[in-house]
């Protein structure tokens, strides 16, 4: 037996413990934990002389026995001196839980990557206040059999929440779910991650090749994302004493996920995202109050409603500067016109003009989509051809012009929808497309005077959608019809994939394409669309495009349908 004399440098206490020479340091720690003489904040250390001390990392405790700390092992020597010193233990937690590994979203759930793309250089541990440590979580039934690890994705990152497919089919959540009460112990916060040399080389090769399949193979090997904050803890049913020690903790929540490609240098990132192309990053429908609280009147009759971005949309654009917001609004009784309102140093807002002199709608439906680079390579779409374009056109007034035509794409292989971006609330910019979507025609309109007026400074974002993209049906429902009447009954234009009921109940992005430049106002209701031609001798032949975007087919059966149901119930109840 060996007598180990220990001094705790944190509180000055001294004690001794008997142990066998061949006892591993990790096992010796467990013996001290039984009597609460050590905790996770303390590491073993030995002082060899007055100026030189060695701290043994938690990561290496399995590699040492107590006899390794005897200066000169002889049969008569049976004492060693050791110290307990305050230390950080993030390296131990990282090795135990592989927290610097990437992760994949699959139809089976969240899976850890096989290979390591990133190297963790620093992290910190933030202890959770015991008062707020308990929380309830719901996990799918399949995790009940193996509760060694269970996970909650961060709902603030819609790229991951409930979105996964395998072999082209939707991954439906398990019908069996179980609620657990967990105990949060600490938050693991990653400070510095660097891409490994091997990972960077594979990324460079994929960029040179230029094919998206190469990047898919990289994510299959290294994962799609890595959480930079991880909540650690365990089930409340576990031995509470065990949860005092970090080796018994599990990962119970991921926060602030980042793409594994985020950690390569900016030059490589830019090349990667240009290959990925732009896609629909997020889509949702909200119900907004149409009352006088937030309205700003243009005059006694017409008003502008400024609507703050939904938190989900705000979160996406704050983390990705190259995102574009598109929105459309519809009321139960009246018609609306949407524009993005920008102000220096402030977050954009949605500006909604009511096109009627008076509105009796108390609530309006807003359809939002965010278009940007798919930095996570989501697994729920095919990558090869699903590439959207966002064209931005800027206008600076230089004369008394009240209309402006912009040339778009040379090819007629794209459908287009658009939204104005203005910096003044009283500017209404109307538009339509012409020449098979090769041209954008814009004009300024005064609701008060009921006539066109001088164009102000503005920008215009155009979403260009490939016509021949067979993968579009997974994210976008498209209907283009030839018209010769200014009133369009929505239910007449359906196909087998999307029935009349669905087409009527969703707010739609409507795009009008004429043979020549015209000035029109588009008045959309759920079941009917009216095209108001402002010119006296306007033609009446045009193409009307209905666009209903979804992030996945699951959107038709979950929160979106609940939102719509509440809207219809409330609207009919007030009418």
UniProtKB/TrEMBL annotation:
Residues 300-535 form the DUF7431 domain. Pfam families: DUF7431. InterPro entries: DUF7431. This is DUF7431 domain-containing protein.
């Amino acid at each position: 037996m060996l007598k180990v004399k220990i001094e705790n440098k944190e509180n000055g206490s001294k004690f001794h413990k008997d142990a066998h020479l061949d006892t591993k340091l990790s096992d010796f720690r467990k013996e001290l934990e039984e009597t609460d003489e050590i905790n996770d904040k303390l590491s073993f250390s030995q002082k060899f002389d007055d100026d030189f001390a060695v701290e043994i990392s938690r990561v290496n405790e399995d590699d040492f026995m107590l006899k390794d700390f005897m200066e000169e092992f002889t049969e008569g020597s049976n004492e060693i001196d050791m110290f307990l010193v305050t230390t950080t233990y993030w390296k131990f937690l990282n090795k135990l839980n592989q927290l610097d590994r990437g992760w994949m979203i699959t139809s089976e759930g969240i899976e850890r990557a096989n290979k390591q793309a990133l190297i963790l250089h620093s992290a910190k541990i933030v202890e959770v206040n015991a008062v707020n440590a308990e929380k309830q979580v719901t996990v799918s039934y399949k995790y009940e059999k193996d509760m060694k690890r269970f996970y909650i994705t961060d709902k603030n990152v819609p790229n991951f929440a409930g979105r996964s497919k395998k072999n082209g089919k939707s991954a439906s959540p398990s019908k069996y779910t179980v609620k657990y009460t967990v105990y949060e112990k600490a938050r693991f916060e990653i400070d510095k991650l660097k891409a490994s040399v091997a990972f960077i080389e594979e990324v460079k090769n994929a960029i040179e090749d230029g094919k998206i399949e190469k990047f898919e193979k990289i994510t299959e090997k290294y994962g799609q994302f890595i959480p930079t904050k991880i909540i650690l803890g365990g089930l409340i049913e576990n031995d509470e004493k065990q949860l005092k020690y970090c080796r018994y903790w599990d990962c119970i929540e991921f926060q602030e996920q980042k793409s594994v490609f985020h950690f390569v240098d900016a030059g490589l990132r830019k090349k990667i995202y240009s290959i990925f192309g732009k896609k629909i990053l997020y889509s949702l429908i909200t119900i907004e109050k149409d009352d006088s609280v937030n309205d700003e009147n243009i005059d006694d009759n017409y008003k502008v409603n400024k609507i703050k971005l939904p938190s989900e949309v705000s979160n996406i654009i704050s983390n990705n500067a190259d995102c574009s917001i598109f929105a459309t609004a519809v009321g139960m009784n009246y018609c609306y016109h949407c524009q993005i309102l920008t102000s220096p140093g402030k977050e954009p807002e949605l500006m909604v003009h009511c096109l009627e002199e008076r509105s009796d709608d108390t609530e309006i439906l807003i359809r939002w989509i965010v278009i940007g680079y798919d930095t996570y390579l989501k697994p729920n779409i095919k990558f090869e051809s699903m590439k959207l374009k966002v064209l931005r056109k800027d206008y600076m007034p230089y004369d008394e012009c009240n209309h402006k035509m912009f040339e778009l794409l040379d090819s007629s292989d794209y459908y287009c929808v658009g939204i104005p971006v203005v910096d003044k609330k009283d500017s209404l910019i109307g538009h339509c497309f012409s020449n098979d979507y090769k041209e954008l025609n814009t004009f300024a309109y005064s609701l008060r005077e009921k006539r066109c007026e001088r164009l102000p400074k503005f920008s215009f974002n155009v979403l260009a959608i490939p016509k021949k993209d067979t993968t579009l049906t997974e994210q976008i429902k498209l209907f283009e019809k030839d018209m010769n009447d200014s009133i369009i009954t929505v239910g007449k234009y359906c196909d087998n994939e999307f029935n009349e009921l669905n087409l009527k109940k969703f707010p739609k992005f409507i795009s009008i394409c004429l043979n020549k430049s015209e000035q029109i106002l588009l008045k959309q209701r759920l079941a009917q669309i009216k095209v108001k031609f402002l010119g006296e001798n306007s033609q009446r032949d045009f193409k009307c495009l209905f666009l209903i975007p979804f992030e996945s087919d699951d959107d038709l059966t979950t929160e979106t349908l609940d939102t719509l149901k509440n809207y219809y119930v409330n609207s009919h109840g007030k009418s």
